[in-house]
Every structure is written in C-alpha cells, then in structure tokens.
Amino acid sequence: MAALWKALVLVLLEALLCPADEVTLKPKPARKPVRLFTDDDLRSYNGLKEGKPIYLAVKGVVFDVTKGKEFYGRGAPYNALAGKDCTKAVAKMSLDPEDLTHDTTGLAEEELQSLDSIFKDTYKAKYPIVGYTARRILNEDGSPNKHFQPEDQPNFSIKDEF
Ligand code: HEM
C-alpha cells in the first residue's frame, strides 16, 4: 500500500512539475534575420568611398555588387545605379536621373519582362543578396509586410542575414 501511495505521489509531482505542454513543445526553427535598408543606408554604399562595399537594389532586393566595381565604382559607367533602388533604370536600360527609382509605374510589359530577366540572370546569378529595402519589408504605415518572403539564392551561401 505504501508503495502505491509513493507511486501516486510521484505521478502527481511529475504532472505538477512537468506540464505536458512543456514536454511536447519544440522550438520553431528560427527564421534567419534579414537586413533592412533605408534609402539613407543604401546611399552610403554608392561606390564613392574607397574600400567600402558597393550595393544597389533591384525590385527592393539589395545586392552586393562590389565585384562589379568596373561597372559601379567611382567613375564607372553605371555608378549612377549604385547606392539606390534603380529598378526602373534597369527595366528601361536608362541612366536618366528620373529613372533612378524603385517606382515601376508606367513601365511597358516588355520592360517589366526585361527587368525580370536582368534581375534573375544578372543580379541574382552574379551578386549576393545582402538585404531588402524598407519598402519591400514594410507596409506604407511601417507595419511588417506579412507577405514578405526572402529571395531564394541557391548559388550563394546566404548573405542576407545580419
Ligand atoms: C551604348 C550603350 C551601352 C553599351 C554599349 C553597354 C554595354 C554593356 C556591356 C559590354 C556590358 C558588359 C557585360 C559583361 O561584361 O558582363 C553591359 C552590362 C550592363 N549594362 Fe550596359 N551598355 C550600354 C548602356 C547601358 C545602359 C543605359 C544601362 C542602364 C541601366 C545599362 C545597364 C547595364 C547593366 C545593369 C549591366 C550588367 C552589369 C553587371 O553585370 O553588373 N547599360 N553593358
């Protein structure tokens, strides 16, 4: 009888000290943090400072284009694209200052298709992703955009974390 009581007390103690939830809960796999760039953050990577990496964004995805210094560095032909989200310029193959913007309003269907292929075949294939513009990660009111998905970039060991 004493043994039965002892067993009962042990079972009760275990139930009290180790609630079932605690035993069965498994930690969720942590999602890798991504770096958010404001326009000012991005501007400081405009290729003009010797020794500093060069970044640009296309479709809100920030790429480290430092290895394309001959295109984007100081005095290089596409330096105007560096340090900003230059989506429209890339879509139109234009260096016109008014096209140096993230805003794709008014682009023709062929320009949007061209943008997608340059995004995929040049930028994603050649340069590592280092983050995303605030516009891509947040809604206009500053709340997190629940539909945000980091880009898949299988050729690189992910650099879009901070
Ligand atoms: C006379 C006009 C142009 C010529 C002859 C020209 C020529 C070239 C050449 C030879 C490349 C090199 C490709 C390589 O080595 O991988 C290139 C790349 C490129 N061009 Fe142009 N281009 C011109 C105008 C433009 C304009 C106006 C833009 C505006 C956005 C532009 C955007 C680019 C981009 C984004 C790349 C890819 C650079 C990279 O690989 O990071 N090009 N262009």
Topology of this structure?
Elements: H1 2-17, H2 20-24, E1 36-37, H3 39-43, E2 55-58, E3 61-64, H4 69-72, H5 87-92, H6 109-126, E4 129-133, H7 134-137
Parallel strand pairs: 1-4
Antiparallel strand pairs: 2-3, 3-4
Bound molecules: protoporphyrin IX containing FE.
Explained architecture:
Belongs to the cytochrome b5 family. MAPR subfamily. It is found in: Endoplasmic reticulum. Keywords: Endoplasmic reticulum, Heme, Iron, Metal-binding, Signal. The protein has 162 residues and is of the alpha+beta class. The chain has a domain at 36-137: Roll (Flavocytochrome B2, Chain A, domain 1), CATH 3.10.120.10. Helix content is 36%, strand content 9%. The chain has a 4-stranded mixed sheet with strand order 1-4-3-2. β2 (55-58) and β3 (61-64) form a beta hairpin. It is globular. The site of protoporphyrin IX containing FE has 11 residues, from α5 and α6.
